Predict the structure.
Amino acid sequence: METKYVFVTGGVVSAIGKGITTASLGMLLKRRGYRVALLKIDPYLNTDAGLMNPFQHGEVYVTDDRAETDLDLGHYERFVDESMSALSNVTTGQVYAEVIRKERDGGYYLGATIQVIPHVTDEIKERIRRCARHHQADICIVEVGGTVGDIEGQPFLEAIRQMRHDEGRDNVCYVHVTLVPYLSTVGELKTKPTQHSVRELRSMGIQPDVLVCRTQKALSREMRAKIALFCDVPVENVVEARDIQKTLYEIPLALENEGIANLVTRVLRLPDREANLDDWREILRPLLSPSKSVRIAMVGKYMDLHDSYLSVTAVPLVLGLLKLAFRVASGLTLPACVHSRHLPQKVSHRRLMPFTPSNPPRLGFDEVAQNPSAGCPFCGEPLRYSGASRLRLKRGWPLTCLRLLSCCRGDLRSERSERRRLARTDRGGPPATAGATTASPCGGAG
């Protein structure tokens, strides 16, 4: 079977959901019996995501071949259940580095003037085809990062425009993810941002075949007809993507109800097939209606951005659903995130993660729940109870987790008092009184 290509672009704003749309579409096509390959294009000049600040770009997802890639590849693997590789992530830095290497070699371009078109765009197209060949894919789905109109993304949009010319009209499908915002002041959905986004995309020579419209409210038939008229797509190709409240693993089912996979296969002249999603619905059932919940505290450096540890937070969720790590398949949440600056410097990594063959890594605080007097599993100090009842009533956290967090985060107010006491002593002030509060190895009051 000749490989066909689906290109997913985004407009209006960044982080609009292109990655989840790509992963969901890949899963739905695979469930229809097609071999799929997924590729993420990142227009930034970095060679890879390895040295990028997690606050700016989220986590660095490491593939089986040790490539440091974009976090969307983690979504791809979790949804499609296929291993990604270094070929699954392309950046501007990689493309330009390879073009310059070939120019310096002298045996590739043979003295030609190196230009964005055709040399850079040809390199981009070759990397897309290489990923498809490596995975022996029937359908290669390519997510183009960034937003339509960004100057750094123009060479990639030109390359995917050329792909329809090179591969044939029936072998390429363009999916555009856009925003239909709801203005609460007037109580209306507005289509103008979508119209401008599609117009910008068409100015690059790309006419979208399918529109995925992110929205807070349901799109009426009239609203879909208006978008279809101004964006020149069939009204049935306007797909509603309403915000999901509970879990992103609902999104494939929501898009399946909208028929997005069938729309894509029709554009690609492929036969319609039914997708068996019974097991996916079975996995979702405990998430949507959990009987119990387990709350886990996680220590990290980049806790101010949820995406910094996206795969780490997904692990207990998946394990809980598969009933491998917990005795109840229930809603697993991580509301208690502890920044590493709240841990004392004297708690070494060896003490923080005491992993040995006789003491393997553990998820959660099951030991503490069974034996609260055992002490903090991180530092061994007795767990403190002060303030637990008040916080429990205020936030509803389990008492066991509060004991542990109270120990490991420490009583910051007591620490400040201790610093002021030491400062007075250094200035010749009165000595500390008997029974003064001292700091425990976990930073809390002793």
